[in-house]
Amino acid sequence: MVTADRALADAVSSGGTVTVDPEEFEERMEMAAMMQIKGEDPEEETREPLIDPGKKKGPARRLPRAGRRRRQKVKKL
Question: Could you tell me the residue range of the domain that residue 71 belongs to?
Answer without folding.
Answer: 1-45+63-77
